[in-house]
Amino acid sequence: MREVFETPSRRGGKCALATDCKGPELKHYPSLLHIDEFIGAKPDPRIVGVALRKLGLTGHEAVMIGDTPYDAEAASGAGTAAAGVLMGGFSIDALRGAGCFAIADEISRLLASLEDAKPSRLGA
What we know:
The chain is α/β, with parallel strands linked by helices. It has six helices and three strands; from the N terminus they run H-H-H-E-H-E-H-E-H. A three-stranded parallel sheet has the order 1-2-3, sandwiched between helices.
């Protein structure tokens, strides 16, 4: 299956994944198939920017919490720190590599991690 996604990418093509899966299942399968790097459709930093504007915050005043490396990349693209939860099927290394400064296995445990590992860009 990986080769199905890898071949167009080697030739300069782009890939997107269209499926009727939802939620964690949708995020888990590309990781399981080791095709994450070939999927071109990812969260757009502009969505993060819209949320910040609605909250009346700058990127330096917020932390985006997500469960995929793509969420962390979108946060970074919007100038926001990223924290991760291990609910999307991605490893700690994948989330940390994408820029998450704090990672926990579930949201409730993330709060303690946020207190212990404040990002430098928040000035803490």
